[in-house]
Amino acid sequence: MNQGSGLGIFDPRNSSAECRIASDLESLEKKIAAIRVFGHKIVLTMGTFDLAHIGHYRYLAEAKQHGDFLVVGVDSDAKTRARKGPHRPIVHEDERMELLCHVRSVDFIILKSDSWERWELIKRLRPDVLIATAETYTPEEVQQLESDFCGRVVVLDPQATTSTTAKVRKILVEGLDRFKRKVQDLIPEVLDKALEEVLEK
Questions:
Q1: In total, how many domains does the chain have?
Q2: pTM for the whole structure
Q3: Model confidence over 73-92: pLDDT tens digits?
Q4: Whether residues 76 and 173 fall in one domain
């Protein structure tokens, strides 16, 4: 395994969106081609990165250790809704990408459109290493990817016990509990007022 520096593109202090977020696949392909001239290894990973938590940051840092430049494909809002339901993502795609600009292990970010063909980003970039989680690809798909589109597929274990889904569930449950307590507190007041109005008639 090639032990990368763990730092983002060139100067880790440069977190500007203009520097890191690719406007389209063609421009990203040109940047990757230029980097490969110098023999650098390209690592690719993809995900939603909604409601970022420590597991996301650990995952990206570990991914970077497998090469020299880390490209992150971020699922668009439309793609996320199709996969996770109408109430996701919580955070808009622009904000999710900008947030990744400030992660020192991330070099390039690109938005994955729901109109893209299956594995299009992988096919176009042909990364030296593709980083994924256990549930992303079947063993047969991993074999096909390594055979046709990338050098190696590395499956990472969960990097934290939390998840975005668990965080959303916790927020919803806690919000519902607060709402129930508020309603319970209001009921006596509402009943007293209604009784007063009846007696006044």
A1: 2
A2: 0.76
A3: 999 999 999 988 888 898 99
A4: no
